[in-house]
């Protein structure tokens, strides 16, 4: 039998080799709604990818879509540098009323360039300015973006290797559990910081993810986070929580650090803050640390007013107790379904990672997650891998996926695991 190669597409012909997700999910998508996407041929996919965390409220949520369309039709300014606009005022007021005030949080809001990595750059600059120190402590498995300052803090060697210049001023420390159950990584961190013979200088800041979205879905315990916050406070080190992926409701609360009861000095938000996939990023900074002067961290797209309008509409959810109850119920449903998978595939060493609706499945065979992700695509499920070796499946449905959607998606996932292991047996 001769297999005819499909003709090259416009993407093969013109798009840069650096493209990545589209290689794993080689469909041409034409429509998206809620937790589903359709390709140009009308084939449906269940989306457990959620734009790598940028679509917590699902694709094209109706209320957000309507707010964006109304604003455009009324000729609201779309681009505004950092000019004051009614859209920005509405966002700031809603964020204060729905997010900050109910949690007793006092932060200034710095709008940065619209990518997560730019928010991280801004947080690092502030921490370095305020403390007069240069080093940032980042953790094993951490991911903070790909521009040079943030890239230095990102753990994966492959990503850092693309920089082409030396990356410096970051000290790597072990995340919780990194060195096995016998090693308390906060004790180790404290010892290295306090010993003048350790070779570790006092850093400007710690930067940490409470759940490592790109680093294999390891999650820090509330106790570990509280101890980290204590170590920072006692030594005048600033605590930056990078909540770009785990924030905006992923773990069940608006911020991922709420359960731990800590108050970071700086918080980075991006990905799902606009809620409809429009680029937007910000840094929350304790008022006394807000020390960058006018223009010291500028950028053309810090005033994406369409994103402000969308973000304001999304924040309505957080004023609605039914929404938060639903997210918690969905997290419990997903946990139950994944636990069932872990039992069913116990012979593969299947283990559940993460928290809330940012979850991972790891297997004894590090190569299996990749094969499952590819098999899942063939069955109509978008699910990516995480970790430096792509060794963990990342399960991230929209927060608002209904129970049927969660069951359907995890059912497809079970089929994909079975298919991927059957392939393996034939080899
Ligand atoms: C995605 C991500 C970033 C970088 O965001 P970009 O918009 O891709 O620059 C930084 N930190 C975390 C935790 C992320 O998940």
Architecture overview:
This protein has 14 helices and 15 strands. With 427 residues, the protein is an alpha/beta fold. The protein has 2 domains: 156 residues, Aspartate Aminotransferase, domain 1 (Alpha-Beta Complex); 243 residues, Type I PLP-dependent aspartate aminotransferase-like (Major domain) (Aspartate Aminotransferase, domain 2), CATH 3.40.640.10. Strand 2 and strand 3 form a beta hairpin. Helix 13 packs across helix 14. The two termini are 21 Å apart. The model has no long low-confidence stretch (mean pLDDT 97). The chain binds pyridoxal-5'-phosphate.
Helix and strand arrangement:
Blueprint: H1 10-14, H2 21-24, E1 29-33, E2 36-39, E3 44-47, H3 50-53, H4 62-73, H5 86-100, E4 108-111, H6 116-131, E5 136-139, H7 148-153, H8 157-161, E6 170-173, H9 185-194, E7 205-208, H10 222-235, E8 238-242, E9 266-269, E10 282-285, H11 305-315, H12 321-344, E11 351-355, E12 358-362, H13 368-379, E13 381-382, E14 384-386, E15 392-395, H14 403-426
Bound molecules: pyridoxal-5'-phosphate (PLP).
Pyridoxal-5'-phosphate binds at residues 115-117, 120, 143-145, 209, 213-214, 242, 244-245, 270-271.
């Amino acid at each position: 039998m001769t297999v005819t190669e499909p003709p090259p597409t416009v993407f093969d012909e013109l798009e840069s080799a650096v493209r990545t997700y589209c290689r794993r999910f080689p469909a041409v998508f034409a429509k998206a709604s809620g937790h589903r996407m359709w390709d140009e041929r009308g084939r449906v996919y269940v989306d457990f990818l959620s734009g790598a965390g940028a679509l917590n409220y699902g694709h094209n949520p109706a209320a957000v879509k309507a707010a964006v369309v109304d604003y455009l039709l009324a000729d609201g300014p779309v681009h505004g540098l950092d000019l004051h606009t009614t859209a920005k005022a509405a966002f700031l007021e809603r964020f204060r009323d729905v997010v900050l005030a109910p949690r007793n949080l006092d932060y200034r809001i710095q709008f940065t360039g619209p990518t997560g990595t730019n928010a991280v750059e801004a947080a690092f600059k502030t921490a370095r300015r305020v403390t007069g120190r240069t080093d940032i402590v980042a953790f094993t498995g951490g991911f903070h973006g790909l521009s040079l300052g943030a890239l230095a803090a990102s753990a994966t060697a492959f990503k850092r290797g693309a920089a082409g210049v030396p990356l410096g001023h970051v000290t790597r420390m072990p995340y919780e559990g990194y060195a096995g159950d016998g090693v308390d990584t906060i004790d180790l961190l404290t010892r290295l910081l306090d010993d003048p013979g350790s070779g570790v200088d006092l850093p400007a800041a710690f930067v940490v993810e409470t759940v490592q979205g790109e680093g294999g879905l390891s999650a820090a315990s509330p106790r570990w986070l509280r101890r980290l916050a204590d170590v920072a406070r006692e030594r005048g080190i600033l605590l930056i929580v990078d909540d770009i992926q785990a924030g905006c409701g992923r773990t069940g609360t608006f911020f991922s650090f709420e359960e731990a009861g800590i108050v970071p000095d700086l918080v980075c938000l991006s990905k799902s803050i606009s809620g409809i996939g429009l680029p937007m990023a910000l840094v929350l900074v304790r008022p006394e640390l807000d020390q960058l002067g006018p223009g010291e961290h500028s950028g053309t797209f810090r005033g994406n007013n369409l994103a402000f309008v969308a973000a304001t509409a999304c924040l309505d959810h957080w004023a609605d107790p039914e929404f938060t109850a639903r997210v918690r119920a969905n997290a419990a449903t997903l946990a139950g379904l994944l636990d069932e998978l872990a039992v069913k595939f116990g012979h593969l060493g299947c283990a559940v990672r993460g928290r809330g609706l940012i979850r991972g499945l790891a297997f004894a065979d590090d190569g299996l997650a990749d094969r499952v992700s590819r098999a899942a695509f063939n069955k109509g499920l978008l699910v990516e891998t995480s970790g430096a070796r792509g060794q963990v499946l990342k399960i991230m449905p929209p927060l608002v996926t209904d129970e049927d959607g969660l069951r359907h998606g995890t059912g497809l996932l079970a089929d994909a695991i079975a298919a991927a292991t059957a392939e393996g047996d034939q080899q």
